[in-house]
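Inputs:
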Amino acid sequence: MTDVSIVMLWTDILLWILLVVFIFGIRSIRRSEQARKQWRKIFQSKIAMAAGLILSTYFALAMLDSVHFRFIEQTTSVDHSAVEPWSLQALQQDFAEFTGNLVHDELHGKTLSLLDLGMQHLILSTERTYSAPFALTEYSTSIVYNEEGVQQQYKLLKYAGQHLQDGDTISADVFLQTLYVFVFSLFTTLVFWLVHGYFRIKAFIFRRAGQKLEPLPWKTFYLTLFMLIFALSWLYHLSNFYHVLGTDKVGQDVLYQSIKAIRTGVMIGLLTTLVMLPLALFLGISAGYFKGLVDDVIQYLYTTLNSIPGVLLIAAAVLVMQSILNTHNDWFGSTEERADLRLLFLILILGITSWTGLCRLLRAETLKISQVEYVSAAKAFGLGGFSIIRRHIMPNLMHLVLIALVLDFSGLVLAEAVLSYVGVGVDPTTPSWGNMINQARLEMAREPMVWWSLLSAFGFMFILVLAANLFSDRVQWVLDPRAH
Amino acid sequence: MSKLLQRNYEYPVLSLLNLSIQVGEQTLVDKVTFDIHKGEIFALVGESGSGKSLTSLAIMRLLPQALQITQGSIELQQQNLFDLTEAQMQGLRGKKVAMIFQEPMTSLNPVMTVGNQVAEVLRLHLGLKSKAAKQKVIELFNEVGIPEADQRINWYPHQLSGGQKQRVMIAMALACEPDLLIADEPTTALDVTIQAQVLQLLKKIRDRRQLSILFITHDMGVVNEMADTIAVMKQGKLVELAHKELFFANPRHSYTQKLLADAVPKMQDKQAGSGEPLLSLKDLKVHFPIKKGILQRTVGHVKAVDGVDLEIPKGQTLALVGESGSGKSTIGQAILNLVRSTGGEVEFFHSADDSVTMNKLSDRAMRPLRRKVQVIFQDPFSALNPRMTISEIIREGMNSLQVGPQTREGQNKRIEELLVKVGLLPEHMQRYPHEFSGGQRQRIGIARALAVEPELIICDEPTSALDVSVRAQVLNLLHELQIQYGISYLFITHDLSIVPTIAHRVAVMQEGKIVEQGEVEQVMRNPQNEYTQSLLASAPELVRKALKVA
């Protein structure tokens, strides 16, 4: 008998709220013709299309990793025969049995996310210590006592390459598996293409006569989609048989860590902007519109905040936060919750220290817009300050906000890595690229060098940041009215 | 006559033959041919988008990359410019052909002294040493009429007035004794009195140096003042080319005739109106404090408006004329309560004996009066919120001030009516401002003001950003609306030529004070005040003749 309980972490809740906001944003874009045209124009660039797809894959993985469960084995056994078939109780029992089968016995009682459910084999296949990608033995020799006496030898890995028969080579096996994955990805892409084709034909038939739309680069879309599916399923499929990206010091799979780190990176990139945005918008617009004393106070505030070195301020805040957490053990039930709370605080601290740039930008733009004649016209119509801000100033600032958000995202993902490296980042138990890089500091000094941890963290982070930067370039080009 | 004959034996300084410029499939300049002779002022006239500036850029070979010269040739003293390399061309620009631009503010480098900027040209093209260059700069400054030249060479652009900046630009252009000077709307951004001075200067330099000038402008008055030969461009084509006397005496092309007719002020028959007062200003003062130091102490005041008395009767138009900085726009804003007045009264008359003092009211008490007084702005591009559709823009006032129908369908119907009334189409409702031309946007601005059924509209230079023909259309529209609804206008302008067309009365403003006011004909034909006289004397001859100024 197993019982499932959903675990609500703070950051999970915030991320899902963000998703709801995002969906509302898309709805409002769909409703406004001008916005729809602009977004269509953004995706008309091949690079933006590819980058957008990669970004959404990252976000999808982060979302999957943000639904947490706990499976608890119940010791009291229930008599099956006592329950009537097809009653509510029976259904509950069946469900419990079903969920019990979802999770490996060893993982009962642990907090798992939806993503973890699919990657249980990676959690369980923990080796003793370092092993290189696709290796069958450990990376360094160990002393073994056997019939032949004391020997130094590379010990075999417990989980890698167990399916290989005598005489099979790794390369031949990998080649075969790759071929299999290739056919699978081709087929999956084809299914996507067919479903999408059906909707496109339907849309084409019902389109108003004479309405001409600029074509989107679907070829690039499907090429990227295919490459993404291929890369992900290759990694996933082969991870069943090998440690594709090797293992770390305590034998944990590096691929698993890298993928789990996506959530941390995306969380910090997205949620920080969520914290920062209201502050920057409210203070920036107030300073620019009301001027005078309000402006002076806000300007002094951000000038002061800006003149303290960022890392110093964050380090100080994190240290304070740590000591607070240590004295309030009742705030969290488990280590996961503690780590999550720490992540949340880090996000808050980053948000509170990074609003100044955008605020300054918004203040300057508001100053400019509030002098423009359509604002005077609105005043001549007797509109109040709040209505003028809402109807005339905010809409004309939105492109700035959007550009700043997309640009900040990549900066924040990188900031997480830097802060963890300095030692004031996320909890050491939280999988994050920054933690991986921090560990790699020692690994790089070993002889022979352990390179795969750093490389994996670098690769995953690089793709995310590059995609975000390329996408933001395009967003900036399309949305900035001065760019044309 | 002897001058003309003499010219025929010389080769032209500049000769364009069948010049065509295209972008993609679209032809922007279509087979333009003309010659400019030594010592000739050649005016190229046309409205915005007619291709006149492109032609001048082609002569400098400074066309943007996307544009292509598809045929034709440009010869400068029998040297085909298209045969030269870019390096040779660089040597030519500034030395043989010089250019002055419309906006003296942005054409000078703000972080270099003006003397250095001129000296740089001398050093570059003539290889003068710093001392000789300095001497030459002082000579040039004296020639273009900058007083205390040996002091002012060390000044920065922001320390000079607009007219002086334009003089510096001219000095820079003259520095290397070019054969041809291209002047691209050199006086459009200047006040009338300064415009007259700059035009005088250019003529004097032409006489002294036998310089050829390609004068690009849209202002027929200026053309009449300056040009020897005139070419009119319309949509990339040269439609008329004639000597000045012939051109003004007998314009042949219908477009030229229309341009000339629009440029000349007309005394229009105007409805008298009831003559009852609608708005009166009594001793209105608007002073802006000058604050200095860390504590922002007020150390003095800028007296933008300093004791102004005006009266606007019902159904009539009062034109407020003055140069930039005279405080005329501030009066408009003070009436609208957009700036707080320091003293005096703005009185609005509901009827002859029921009046409110507007500038003493709080924002809340002002609201019912907002629908009575509306405003139209100068720049049609910044007057409309780019993120709102036309229907939203017009609807805003109706919702905010509770005027007209309050249901959505009723409002839509009213917006359609308003659009038709100002000469637009009902289907324009759902479009955004960027889809319209300047004239159309100005019409939308008028529709927005009309939506709340105002009794007074403050027109703050509503036509100064528009082409001549569009200007005439907008003025006509305003005139018709006045006849139809009996609206009063306060028409703020610096352009004397439109005053007789639109106004019943005129007030002349200088440094925050009204120096003269009265009936249009009386003030225009027989000005009493010295300043009014100098303003009218500075107006181009074409305007003066039509006004029959004594």
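The longest strand of chain A covers residues 2-7. Flag for discussion at group meeting.
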